[in-house]
Write a structure and sequence with these properties.
The chain is α/β, with parallel strands linked by helices. The strands form 2 sheets. Strands 1, 2, 3, 4, 7, 8 and 9 form a 7-stranded mixed sheet that branches. A two-stranded parallel sheet has the order 5-6. Strand 1, helix 2 and strand 2 form a beta-alpha-beta unit. The protein starts with a helix and ends with a strand.
Length: about 280
C-alpha cells in the first residue's frame, strides 16, 4: 500500500464516518457543534499516528469542525484506549482501534481494563496491510536467509524492537516459533531462532533507534519503512503477507522463503464509546 492508496482508504473511511456519525444524533441536527477529539493510543511519529492525522484532516473538511489528534501512548495502545473508553459517549471522542490494543492484547493480558467487544461501537476499518522485516545496514546479513542463519548460529545475540501486542510484535513471535519448529526436511531447520526483544511505547521511538543502529532488526509497517529503504537507511529482508507486495517487488515473502502459509497482517479502525 503506497501513500496514495493509504490516502484513498483514509478518505473512504472518513466519508463513511461522516455519514454514520450524524445518524446517531438525528435529534441534534447541528452535530457537530464543537471540535472532535481523535485519540491515537500511540506516541507521535509511528504508523498509527500518521494514519490518525490523515483521517483527522479529511474528517475536518467533511464535518466542518476541527478533528484534533491526541496521542496517549503506553502498554502497546492499552493505556490510551482505556483512557478513551472512559470518555463521554457524546460523539466528540473518536478512538483509533487496531489489531494490537483491541485483539492481541486480550489474548496476552487477562487484565486489559476494557472489553473490545462490549465497550465500543466500531464504526469503520481504516486500513489493512502487511509488515516488512527490516534491518539496519550495519547488521551482519543482507537477506532473509542470511538473517535466519545468523540468528540460529548466534542464539540470544540478536536484538529486535517491538511494540507490545502490535502486529509487528506478533509477526516476530510467529516467525521465531515457526523458524524453531522442526520440519523434518533438513537438520539445520531444527535449530531454534532465539532473539531478544526490546519493547517500545510506539513505532516512532522504535524507528528512531533502528535508524540509529541501536537495534538491528524489526518488523514495521510497509508504508513507514519504504522511504528509509529507498534512502538506503534500512534493508528490506521479507514481507509478512502471502503474496509479494507491489512496493517491494524484489523482496520475498516469508511464505515463499521457506515457511508456507506464513501471514501476519496489521489492521486499524475507528470506534466510539458504547452508548454514543
Amino acid at each position: 500500500m503506497n501513500k496514495r492508496s493509504l490516502m484513498r482508504l483514509t478518505f473512504s473511511a472518513a466519508a463513511a464516518m461522516a455519514t454514520m456519525l450524524p445518524l446517531g444524533a438525528l435529534a441534534q441536527a447541528d452535530y457537530p457543534t464543537k471540535p472532535i477529539k481523535l485519540i491515537s493510543p500511540f506516541p507521535a511519529g509511528g504508523t498509527s499516528d500518521v494514519m490518525a492525522r490523515m483521517l483527522a484532516e479529511e474528517l475536518t473538511k467533511q464535518l466542518k469542525q476541527p478533528v484534533l489528534v491526541e496521542n496517549i501512548g503506553g502498554a502497546g495502545g492499552v493505556v490510551g484506549t482505556d483512557r478513551a473508553v472512559k470518555s463521554p459517549a457524546d460523539g466528540y471522542t473518536l478512538i483509533q482501534t487496531g489489531v494490537g490494543q483491541n485483539a492481541v492484547a486480550h489474548g496476552i493480558n487477562p487484565k486489559v481494563p476494557y472489553d473490545s467487544n462490549k465497550d465500543f461501537i466500531h464504526l469503520t476499518q481504516v486500513h489493512s496491510g502487511p509488515n516488512v522485516l527490516v534491518a539496519h545496514p550495519s547488521a551482519p546479513f543482507t537477506n532473509f536467509q542470511e538473517f535466519l542463519a545468523y540468528g540460529r548460529a548466534n542464539p540470544g545475540k540478536l536484538n529486535y524492537g517491538y511494540t507490545p501486542a502490535a502486529s509487528g510484535h506478533m509477526a516476530m513471535e510467529l516467525l521465531k516459533q515457526t523458524a524453531s519448529t522442526c520440519t523434518g526436511a533438513k537438520k539445520e531447520n531444527c535449530k531454534p531462532l532465539f532473539m531478544v526483544g526490546i519493547p517500545y511505547r510506539g513505532g516512532g521511538p522504535m524507528m528512531t533507534d533502528l535508524l540509529g543502529g541501536q537495534i538491528p532488526v524489526m518488523f514495521i509497517n510497509q508504508d513507514v519503512a519504504l522511504q528509509h529503504i529507498k534512502a538506503g537507511k534500512l534493508k528490506a529482508l521479507a514481507v509478512s503477507s502471502l503474496q509479494r507486495n507491489p512496493l517491494y517487488p524484489d523482496v520475498p515473502t516469508i511464505h515463499e522463503a521457506g515457511f508456507p502459509g506464513f501471514s501476519a497482517l496489521s489492521w486499524s479502525g475507528i470506534s466510539v464509546v458504547k452508548g454514543t
